[in-house]
């Protein structure tokens, strides 16, 4: 493997009562060509935490996990912020929805600067990009940033946004 293939990827996932969170995590590790380079920051806002399930997985030491009771949630912006605080200087940063189906060799695609790393519905490809998302789409390979979905303003103002 070259240095580029070994570069670590931090994947930020904020979930709110999403039954597909486990599927997303499994999909990422199964589809990655070098899964040992993945590090996940997961904020699970659900009544039934997936922490016990995560602890039993072979990749458990690659997941930084935070559970929050959904009654104490302060919104998606706040949850994404919390997930970002779990980042620890990995070479790449990827933020995905908690119901993402990854394409084969998605990690190689990210390192190569290819935006087509998910196999499921991708809002930015289906709808016209907003101006902030359009600027992010111009990020060049090697800058270590990729965003999977269109940016939207926080619709519920408060301390979490």
Automatic annotation (TrEMBL):
InterPro entries in the record: Glycosyltransferase (IPR021067)
Source species, domain of life: Bacteria
One Pfam family in the UniProt entry: GlcNAc
Protein's recorded name: Glycosyltransferase 2-like domain-containing protein
Species per Swiss-Prot/TrEMBL record: Wenzhouxiangella limi
